[in-house]
Design a protein that fits this description.
Blueprint (H helix, E strand, L loop, with lengths): L3 E6 L5 H10 L12 E3 L5 E6 L4 H7 L4 E5 H7 L4 E5 L5 E8 L14 E4 L2 H10 L5 E4 L15 E6 L3 H5 L2 E10 L1 E5 L7 H17 L1 E9 L3 H7 L7 E4 L5 E9 L3 H10 L3 E7 L6
Parallel strand pairs: 1-3, 1-4, 7-8, 7-9
Antiparallel strand pairs: 2-3, 4-11, 5-11, 6-9, 6-10, 12-14, 12-15, 13-14
Bound molecules: adenosine-5'-triphosphate and magnesium ion (MG).
Keywords: Amino-acid biosynthesis, ATP-binding, Cytoplasm, Glycosyltransferase, Histidine biosynthesis, Magnesium, Metal-binding, Nucleotide-binding, Transferase
InterPro entries: ATP-PRT_HisG_long (IPR020621), ATP_PRibTrfase_cat (IPR013820), ATP_PRibTrfase_CS (IPR018198), ATP_PRibTrfase_HisG (IPR001348), HisG_C (IPR013115), N-reg_PII-like_a/b (IPR011322), N-reg_PII/ATP_PRibTrfase_C (IPR015867)
GO molecular function: ATP binding; ATP phosphoribosyltransferase activity; magnesium ion binding
Length: 283
């Protein structure tokens, strides 16, 4: 069967996590910064390293079968691609921001104003939705400095911590959209067996991130309290310890309520709790 091609960002904020995800799926490949394409040694896949802006278009046209790219870029390019899997990294927010001393207070105050952005398509959709007539000034980078230069009254840009905004005398004003990295695919790819196999591996890696493997010791008389707390987990493993009257319990706890669970297990008599990362979960 023909190899599939997956496009990932060559360098930038999504590169490292995209490479790591594929490696965690057990794929062997060299990650030469200089090469634009690399072949996976132990899986029918080639990896293309591209500018993120080009990824949705390449996938829509079928030059690449799959891609890893931010939702913001998918929406901005308006490429026709299928969402295959949300990946949980590269989270950020596209926001409107205004100078700290701006007289803009309400969205409607943006009428007649100039807004600088690298995301003209997404911004226009947002303005249309709120029936705002503002001028969009498209800038490809360093959008934050445009109000200070007198180029714009507001900006629309990606914000994660807000530090860049602050150091340019700006403050966040309104949320336009949130974004995370997505595995996208060409629409003709659905049902492809190589994709099915790759997706199973990706999902097992993503699931593993959500859980911890926990081993704890407990006196047998306290075991019912412990298993009660671990309800929902399919039958925790209980093994006898060399010391009479004690057992070890092996289980998996979700990352979400991890500390709460651990504290309740301790109160219920758990001792010597050992926590380990999980590499893969196969359902
Ligand atoms: P390229 O050279 O590939 O075009 P770029 O400069 O356009 O790269 P990056 O800044 O590397 O893009 O960001 C890539 C993606 O990472 C963004 O489109 C966005 O989805 C996501 N991202 C996550 N956090 C942030 C952040 N704090 N700032 C910018 N982008 C972020
Ligand atoms: Mg880009």
């Amino acid at each position: 069967m023909k190899n599939l091609k997956i496009a990932i960002q060559k360098s930038g904020r999504l590169n490292e996590k995209s490479v790591q995800l594929l490696k965690n799926c057990g794929l062997n490949f060299e990650n030469y910064k200089s090469s634009l394409i690399t072949t996976v040694g132990n899986f029918p896949l080639e990896i293309l390293f591209l500018r993120d802006d080009d990824i949705p278009g390449y996938v829509a046209q079928g030059i690449a079968d799959l891609g890893i790219v931010g939702e913001n870029v998918i929406d901005e390019t308006q490429a026709q691609v299928e969402y295959v899997q949300r990946l949980g990294f590269g989270k950020c927010n596209l926001k409107l921001a205004i100078p700290k001393d701006s007289d803009i207070q309400d969205l409607k105050d943006l009428n007649g104003k100039a807004i600088a952005t690298s995301y003209p398509v997404i911004l226009q959709q947002f303005l249309d939705e709120y029936k705002i007539k503002a001028e969009i000034r498209e800038i490809s980078g360093s959008v934050e400095i445009s109000p200070g230069l007198g180029l714009a009254d507001a900006i629309c840009d990606i914000v994660s911590t807000g530090g860049t905004l602050k150091s340019n005398g700006l403050k966040p004003f309104a949320d336009v959209r949130s974004s995370e990295a997505i595995l996208v695919g060409n629409k003709n790819l659905l049902g492809n067996p190589i994709l099915t196999e790759l997706l199973q591996r990706i999902q097992s890696v993503l699931l593993a991130k959500e859980v911890k493997y926990v081993v704890l010791n407990v006196e047998k008389i306290n075991l019912p309290k412990i298993t009660e707390l671990l309800r929902g987990v399919k039958s925790p493993t209980v093994v006898p310890l060399a010391e009479e009257g004690w057992v070890a319990v092996h289980t998996v706890i979700s990352e979400e309520d991890f500390w709460e669970k651990i504290n309740r297990l301790k109160t219920a008599g758990a001792q010597g709790i050992v926590v380990m990362p999980v590499e893969k979960v196969i359902m």
